[in-house]
Every structure is written in C-alpha cells, then in structure tokens.
Amino acid sequence: MKVCSFLPAATNMIYEMGLERYLNGVTFECPSDKPKVVRTHLEGRNLSSPEIETFVTESSNMGKSLYYVDMELLSEIAPDLVFTQDVCDVCQISTSVVQRAIGSLKKQPKVVPLIPRRLRDVYQNALTIATELGEEKIGLDYLASLQKRVHAITDKLREHQAEPKRVMIMEWLDPIYNCGHWIPDQISLAGGVDMLSNPAGYSVVTPWEKVRQYDPEVLVIAPCGFQVERSIQEIDQLTSKPGWSELTAVKNKAVYLADADYFTRPSTTLVDGIELLAALFNPQLFDIPETCMKKVVAISDTELSWV
Fold this sequence. Notes:
Domain Fe/B12 periplasmic-binding: 2-285
Organism: Neobacillus rhizophilus
Pfam families: Peripla_BP_2
Protein name: ABC transporter substrate-binding protein
Low-confidence stretches: none
InterPro entries: ABC_transptr_periplasmic_BD (IPR002491), Vitamin_B12-ABC_binding (IPR051030)
Largest sheet: 6 strands, mixed
Shape: globular
Number of strands: 14
Number of helices: 12
Strand order of the largest sheet: 4-3-2-1-5-6
C-alpha cells in the first residue's frame, strides 16, 4: 500500500507508531524525508505576524487556497490512500483542495479526512490511521502508552490536591489570538484553566485589554507554525504593550515561549505538550520533559532564558 500524508500531524503519528514504511509522500512541513507533494504559496517569504495575517485574510477573501499539490509528483507516486484534514484551511491543505487535485489522476486513491476538535478526536485519528494501514493493534498499543503518561500527571495533581492555575495560551502574537480546539483539554489535564479559550472551536482575535483584565498566572506563547526562535523575533510586540509588567504571570516570572507543535499540531505529540504544561504550571511537582528541552524559553523583565 502506498500512502500520502497531507498533514504533518498524520505524518508525525505514522512515524511515532513505526508505520513509515507505508509512507510515500508528505507536505513541505512534514518531519520526513519522503517526497514533498504539498507546497504553500508562503514558502520562501520572510513575513512578520501582521503580514502573514494580511496575506491569509486576503487569500481567503479571494477564495484562494494557501496550498497546492505537485501533480507531477503525485501522479508518479500514484497513492492508494491519502490522509487529509478538515479543521483549518490556514494551517494545512483542506480535503476539498485535495479532492479537486486528485480528480485528474488515473488511479483514484481513497481519501481519509481527519477532523479533530478535541483531544479525544486526536487519539481517534491515531487509531484511524493505524486501522487504515491494517495495523489496528499497533494503534491501540500506542494509545494505551499515551494514556498511561497522561494518567501519571492527573494522578499526581490529585495526590497533591493542586489547585488549577489561571493560565492563557496564545496562538498568535499580532493580533493576539486565544487558543481553541483541543488545547483547552491539554491545559485542563496539565492542571490549569484558560477562561479565554474556545474549546472545540477556532481561536479568535482577543483584545489586549481582555488579557489584562483576565490577568493569567501563567502565560504560554506558542504562535501557530512558529518555533521558539521565530517567536523571539516578535516578542517585543507583546512586551511593549501597556500594562505588560503588571500582569501576574510577568510578576511571577511565569511567561514562556514554546514551540507551537506541542499545542497547535493535532498529533500525539500533544501529550508531550501536556507534560510540558504540567511542568510550567507546577514546577514543584513536574520536570520539563527531555523532549522539550531547548524548545521553551522563559521571559523575565524582557530577558530571555532557555528552560
């Protein structure tokens, strides 16, 4: 069976489950050395957060997709199965664009859309992938190992009767976006609550004054698609805002930049994100996971230090 994964989350889960032998094509963003079938019009552009926001908005208003398929390469691969997504047209190529692209292929592959809204859906997606590849047992065993890691966190929080921390996770810096979909589930399991979040729904623009009024105890900044090094370039857009130094999170030295993949990518690496958040919310109970080392930065008085 020849498989193409048109979203990094599926690619990541395929590798995590040791099923990469089925994989023949991926996207430009996928953590893989397989042929890159899906590209984006944003490649090669060095744009700021506001410029990216404008580009995305204008493309949407004109009905243009940010992504396209290398049809010559796809025809050469001739996949039997293609994994797509139907959650966010901004983050990854959508199923509708893929369907139009494969319409001209001589052999029509089976298209399997993955539609995660909550964390439980992400788990189900992992099982769907394994099942479609004829490897259901591998999927079940993998999910059991993930759930064991999460239970270790929730059990310790209960054991120590840890009070939920008032937190905020930002999905974009300029303009500020709150977090949505499965991220509130991650926050809850890690011992926090984000009253500005939108569980199972899209993140939305959130006024700075609303953030100030909410006054989080812990603030985690993870702009979608950005790694820490990229976020550092624009952090002054946040630290220069009026009232920044008055936030409880700033006073507590509990402001962090983190790689977005731990939160915005609907993969089983979200469990790494839960473990990371647990350590940021309750450092007296949890250590930063080794997998997250050098991927988190603490902000203190506008100074940055690796966690």
